[in-house]
Amino acid sequence: MNEFSFEETILLSEEEYVDIFGVIPKSRKTFMRFCMLAVGVICLFFPFTQLLGIFLLGMAFVSVVMNRNLPGMSKQTYKAKPYYHQPVTYGITQNKLWANFENFNISSAWENLAVWQLQGKWVRLSPHGLPPIIFKKESLEKAGILETVLQKAKQFGVEFNSPEAKRAF
Fold first, then answer.
1. Pairing mode, if any, of strands 133-136 and 88-93?
2. Among 81, 96, 127, 137, which Cα is nearest to 3's?
3. CB 151 within 8 A of CB 160
4. Rounded to whole angstroms, how far apart are CA atoms 121 and 19?
5. Range from 110-114, 115-119, 165-169 carrying the lowest mean pLDDT
6. Would you give the DSSP letter of residue 25?
7. What residue spans of the chain are helical by DSSP H?
8. 3-state secondary structure of 111
9. What's the pLDDT tens digit per position in 118-152?
10. For the sheet containing 96-100, what is the strand order?
11. What percent of the chain has pLDDT over 90?
C-alpha cells in the first residue's frame, strides 16, 4: 500500500461536536420532525386516524420543546471534555493514527482501531480505549487519501452501527 502522511488541526465548536458524536444527526432530526408533522396533519383529515394525528403532532411538539430545554448528552460530554475546546492536531500515516491535544498526546497503530464512521462532513476513527481521531472528509479528499484511509479502516476496524459492530461489541 502507498505510503502517506496527513495532519490537520481542528478546533471543534459545540455544534460540530454534537454533529459528529450525536446519536441522531441534526439533519435527520429535522427530517423526522417534518415527517411527524406532515403525517400528523394528514391524519387529522380522516375520522379513523384523528387520534393518531393528534398523537404525532404532540410527539413532534414534545420533541422540539425537549430539544430546546434539555441539554443533550453530546452537549454535556463536550462541556465535560475541556481538551476539545482547544485546537487539536490529528494525524494519520500508513502505520498509525495520532492526536496532539494541548496537555497530552495519543497514538495508536491501525491494528488497535475498534470502529470507524463516515458521517456527513467527518471521518471518525476510534481506537480501543482512546479518544476518537477525527478528520474533515473534504481535507482527506483534497489530500487524495480518503479512499486509502477508508480501506485501512475497513481492514482493521468495523463500521459504526453495522451488524459486524453489533456482534463484536
1. unpaired
2. 96
3. no
4. 9
5. 165-169
6. -
7. 14-21, 26-44, 50-69, 73-80, 137-143, 146-156, 163-168
8. helix
9. 888 899 999 998 889 999 999 999 999 999 999 99
10. 5-10, 88-93, 96-100, 105-109
11. 47
